[in-house]
Amino acid sequence: MINRAGFLASPIFVLILLVLLSQISDADQAGFDLPQANGCYLVGTRTDVLIDAHRSRDLLVTMWYPAVGGTFTLAPYMDKKTADAVAEEWKLQPDFQRLVRTHARLLAPIAEGGPFPVVLLEHGSGVVPAIYTVLAEGLASSGFIVVATNHPPDSLIAVFPDGHELKFTPYWPAEGDRRTQGVAMGRFADA
Q: Where are the alpha helices (DSSP H) in 27-155?
């Protein structure tokens, strides 16, 4: 995976992610719990669509934040269309997302005690914000609000609440060397 600056995503992060995802492939129908965040807050999450009028596009924005307890539904790891695209790209079992359990509560109210610092989570090219759920939940449980945009055309796929989707298409020469790819990415970022 190459990020916007043309560097490979952190090899350690990718290794950890692949180990976790390989465990999903071996999971029985009981599922796979993502690692529990160890901060002092419960975690809430929500995804909203923001309109970027300057660029004439909509952005999916997912937030993880310190939350209050209650009987809120646990958030899904990712939606089915996104999971299908990830499974195809990474050769994972179909519907793997149904076996993955997060710890964030969907639409739970934000905890008292703020203000909370904000962390902007930038996904790498060809992936989606959900891939970073463990990191985001960990930060949110420690008192941070984590904001991640799913920004096409960098993301593997962006699935909007109305069902339309935008899929990843590399905007750099896939067969080019890293320097050529980096220059193309830089030009795209400047546009």
A: 80-90, 133-141
